[in-house]
Amino acid sequence: MKEFVLIFRHENATNQVSPEQMQIWMKQQMDWIKGIAAKNKFVSGTGLLFDNARVVGHNNVVTNGTFGEIKETLGGFVIVRAETIEEAVDFAQGTPILQGEGNTVEIREIATH
Amino acid sequence: MDEPELLPHLFRTEYARICVVLCSHFGIEYMETAEDIASETFRSALETWQFNGVPNHPKAWLYKVAKNKALNHFKRKGVFNDNVLPRINTHQMDFEVPDFDLSDDNCTDSQLRMLFAICHPVIAKESQIALALRILCGFGVAEVAEAFLTTRKTINKRLYRAKEKLRSLKIKIEYPGENEMGDRLETVITAVYLLFSEGYYSRSQHSQIRKDLCLEAMRLAHLLVQNHATNTHASNALLALICFHSSRLDARQDLHGNPILYEQQEKHLWNPELIANGNYYLQQSAQWQTLSKYYLEASIAYWHTISEETTEKWESILELYDRLHNMDPSPMIALNRAYALMKVAGKAVALESVKSMDFGSDHFYFLLLGELHSDKDPEEAARNYTKALHLARTAGERKVIRDKILKIGPRT
To answer: Nearest CA to CA, how far is B11 from chain A (Å)?
Structure first.
C-alpha cells in the first residue's frame, strides 16, 4: 500500500471565524480522522502553528512569517495509507476544511525506495 | 483516541473569559489586542487538538497558551519593555511575569465590570448589545450579524465605532461609584433585557442563535444577582422574566423553526427547572418595596407558565397589563392588554377597546383584529388576517397567519 500526504491550505486562516465555528470544525475534523483510522488507513496528522513562524530565503535572509492573513497558507497535513490516488482523494473529500471557500487539499504520494 | 469530550460551546465561553480578563488587565484601549490574542489561542487549539486530540485539561491548556501569547505580544510590541520591565528588577533573569488571573471569581468579576464599561450611556444601545455579544459572550461577527439580521460589515462598523468611543473617552473597566450605580445599573439591565428580546423575538430564522442569545442574557442577569452591588429588585425581576420566557424556548418552535403559538404548545416541553428558577427570582425581587416594569412583565410571564386556563389567570394578566400600560403606554402593551381583555370579557369588549387606537401597520394588530372579528364577521376577520399576512416579517409568521385564514373558511 502507498502512502499519501494530504496538505491543507487555507484561503485566509484569520478570517473572522467564530470560536463556536472553530469548535464545530475541530469536532468534524476529529471525526473525519477517526473515520480514516477506523479503516486502519491513518498514519499521522500534524498541525502547523503560526506563532513565531520564520521564512528563510535566498542568502539566508530570515523574515518573520508566514502569517495567517495571507492566502494559501499551510494549515497542516495528514498522511494516509491508500491503494490508489483515487482512494486518497476520497478521504480528502471528507474533510470539513473544504467547507471553507477557497480552502484546498493537495494530495501527493510520498516517495519511497 | 479517547480524549475527553469537549463541553458544548467551550470555545465560545472560554473565548469570552480570556478576552475579558486580558482586556481588563491591559485596559479598554487594548480590546482588539485582547480579541486577537483570544482568537489566536483558539486557532492554536484548533490546529493542535484536531490532530493530537483534546488535552486532558483543555481549559488549563487554553489559559497557558493565551498567557504566553499575551506575553509574547507585549514583548513584540515593546510595551513590555517600556511599561513592565522598568517596574521589575531587570538584573533578575527569571523575573516574575504578569499573571493573568483566569480563576472563576476573577472571570465573573471582570465580566461584570466589563458589562458596565460596555453599557456606558455614551454607547448606543444597539452597539452595547453587539459589543456584549462579541466580548462577553464570545459570538463571532457573523453570528452577531445573524442575530441582528444585518451584514457583517454593519456589525464591524458598529463595533469599531463603539470601541473608538470607549477608547477616546477612556472608559474604565470598573464598577461605577456608589452615587452613579443606580443609573448605570439601569442601563445595564436595559441592555440585558434588549439582548434577551433580540433573541426571543428575533426575526432571524436561525433558531440556535436565537436560543443562545436568550441563554447568554440569562447568564448575564445571573451575574447581576450574584454580586452584592447589583443584586436589586430590577435585576431579580429581569432574571425571573428571562427564566419564565426561556422555559418555553423548546416548545415555541417546531423542528423547522416555525413558531408554535402559545395555545398550541406542548406543555410537557416547558422547562420546569427554569419555571422554578423564575419563581425563585420573582420572590426575591418582591423583597424590595418597589415596582418596576420588569417585575410586572415577569409577573405576566409567571401567569403564562400556568397551563390551566382559569378565570383567575387571565384576570390577573389583564390587571398586570393595566398597571404596565400606566407605566409604559406603548402600542405593544396596549395590544397585549387587548388580548387579555378578550380572554376575560370576550371579543366584543376587546374589539371596542382597540377600535379607537392607532397601531399603524403592525401585523400583530391586524392579527388581533382578525381574531376579534373571527366569530361574528368572518369576512372582516379574513380581511384583517390578509393585511397581517402582507405585513408579517418571517416565513414562520406567514405560515401561522395562513393557517388562521384557512380555519375561518374559504372566502368568496
So the answer is: 5
